[in-house]
Request: fold
Amino acid sequence: MTLDDDGTIIEIGQLTHETPSTEFYNGIIVPGFVNSHCHIELSHLQDKFERNSGMAGFIRQINRLREVADKEARLKSIQYQMEQLYSSGVSAMADISNCNESFETKSKSKLYTRTFLEVFGTEEKDVPKIEEGVISLTQQAQSFGIDAAPTPHSCYTMSKKLLQHITKIAIDYNWLSYHNQESWEEEQLLINGTGPLADEYNNRGLSTPPVTGESALLYFLDIVKSVGISDTAKVLLVHNTFTNKESIQKAKDIIKELYWAICPLSNLFIHQALPPLQLMRREGLNITIGTDSLSSNHTLSIVEEIKTIQNFFPDIPLIEILEWSCYNGAKFLNKEDVLGSFEVGKRPGVVLIDNIDYSNFKLTDLSRSTRLI
Reply:
């Protein structure tokens, strides 16, 4: 493979003879990764959270620890982790922001970022103020040259009215990222109005979504239908740890540009559970890979996520997982003309993954990723 000075691929072919510029590496080379779900502004929370807390317990930790570090330390953590992401081979990222602290670092990074400005709010009376705030934050992000748009967080952190309003705004922007069926607690809350999440919100005097008797995704899809969605609007459902066949099939019927992000290490950290990947594969879903944040993960490494998938789903070929981590994420970000695969004219970055088990074509415990270009 021959590249020009800015990393654009000029030629791909079989090496016939060595030249002074020929370089050899022990490993496999892959295009730059796309981290399809991250909360980079939570980087200061590394190693601060307890494992196996469930979603209700995780929310309590977020509320207690989010500002455990001062602003200067938070900004330094963001900058350091963005640099680590790029050097480990991430070329693009779909990132969640709840404030403006990551904007300057993103604007200067070599890593392309699309920022989803996430909205919360359980009380209907707060909808106008919340909408005004997220529109202002969107304008701030855009002033830094960042591709950004509002997005809803989840069914359990938003009143139905707010979920409708922000879903409509996100669809109008043509981009939406949504935390979906991350926990069994979320499912229980929507199906029968009970469980740890219901108790958490009731104890804090907060409203909860209506009890529907159906899964959380079906509730959200009814919201999507009520506001309308175009065939070009890209929707990323994130986590999907407790999704099921009925939810998946209805989502496919309603949303044309549909992607499913998985964050295995985060799901294991909070719930000791993983998404039903074999079901998702049988349904032909566009699967992508994210890391979530350092509040629920010990690392922002795509390679570590791939290892986890291999360990729990050894029958899934590495080449397929790499497609999830590179090309599918690029498609979601509408960057597949530049990123995601090795093709002449593209500029995806070149990443080395070392310590490969070549006989089984799998990563090993020692495998690491390093950006070459």
Notes: The longest helix spans residues 71-87. Residues 37 and 290 are 4 Å apart (CA to CA). The mean pLDDT is 96.
